[in-house]
Structures are given as C-alpha cells and as structure tokens.
Write a structure and sequence with these properties.
By secondary structure, the protein is an alpha+beta fold. It folds into 2 domains: 88 residues, no CATH class; 74 residues, no CATH class. The protein is built from 4 helices and 5 strands, in the order ααααβββββ. Helix 2 crosses helix 3. It is elongated.
Length: 179
C-alpha cells in the first residue's frame, strides 16, 4: 500500500539541470515560441516521447528476439528428432516437428532440409567456374552420373558465376583427378 507522502512525491515535478549546445537552445526556444508554450514544456514533451519510443522499441525488439529464439529452438529440436529418430528429452512432438513455415532451414544447397529433385544424369556443367570439395551432411545423388551419395561422402559442389541448376559431383565424377 502506498503511503500518502509517496503519492504526493510522485505528483511533484522535479527539476533537472542540463547543459545543451547553444544551437540546440536556440532551436528549443524557437520551437517553444512557435507553439506558444514554455521551453520547459517542450523539453519535457520531447523527453517523454523519447523515453516512450525507446520503451516501445525495446518491447518490440524483445518480442522479436523471443520469436526468433523460439523458432531456433523448435528448428533445433526438429533437426535432433530427424537425426536421431526420437524426440529429445523435455520436448513435445510439436516442438520436434518445428515450425514448418519459419523454422525450417531455407533450401540453399547440399545441407538443405528438403532435397531437390535429382538432376538427370549427364547434366551440363555450363557456367561452372570451379568446384568446392565438401562433406555431405545428408544423402543425395551425383548430378553427373546419378549414383547415390551417402551422408558423410566427400563430394564436389559446382560454383557458378551465373544462375543455374546445382551441380554436386561424387568422388567417381570428381573433376581434375590426380594422375
């Protein structure tokens, strides 16, 4: 319960002294004059608005961070569940399923969540400027010969300088074989 003295103290306005550059002082006085209010009212209103804006931005950012953290958590649980075939301890089936729209990794290459349709064997390598060796995180197919590539297999990702289909070559179709 609030004491009567506390309520009285809350209503009393406080004076804060601060130094401001001469340019800011002139602008505050000009604004106050144009609004026909005291400079102190302009300063108080600006400060209140600034504090409210910072508070609103902070609440919004906190909400966004929580949303992102929840999505990452669900995505991680989904990856663990898919990798191990079981729901991690303390997680629900819904958590392990993840948020299909927001938490699913974006399909960007070999480690994508949903495998792309296999390319027809013998796909053209036009536009490829080089090959990057990599270790497959999941099973796939060699773009050139169509053979199955198991997770953990060394493969080579074709790097393009123009848009085009993804090219992943297995060890048998490796470019630039040693002698």
């Amino acid at each position: 319960m609030t004491q009567p003295d506390d309520k009285e103290n809350e209503r009393k306005e406080r004076v804060i002294h601060t130094r401001v550059p001469a340019v800011l002082e002139r602008e505050l006085k000009r604004l106050a004059q144009s609004l026909r209010v005291p400079v102190s009212n302009v300063v108080r209103t600006i400060l209140e608005d600034a504090v409210n804006a910072v508070d609103a931005v902070g609440r919004h950012a906190e909400g966004e961070l929580r949303t992102v953290a929840d999505r990452l958590h669900k995505s991680r649980l989904g990856l663990i569940a898919r990798a191990t075939g079981s729901v991690p301890e303390g997680a629900t089936e819904d958590d392990a399923a993840g948020d299909a729209t927001a938490a699913a990794p974006v399909e960007t290459g070999v480690g994508a969540a949903t495998p792309p349709p296999p390319a027809a064997p013998g796909t053209d390598d036009d536009g490829i400027v080089g090959f990057q060796p990599l270790l497959l995180a999941r099973a796939g197919r060699c773009t050139r010969c169509g053979c199955e590539l198991a997770a953990g297999t060394e493969a080579f990702l074709g790097m393009r300088d123009t848009p085009g289909p993804r090219v992943v070559l297995g060890p048998e179709c490796r470019p630039f074989r040693d002698g």
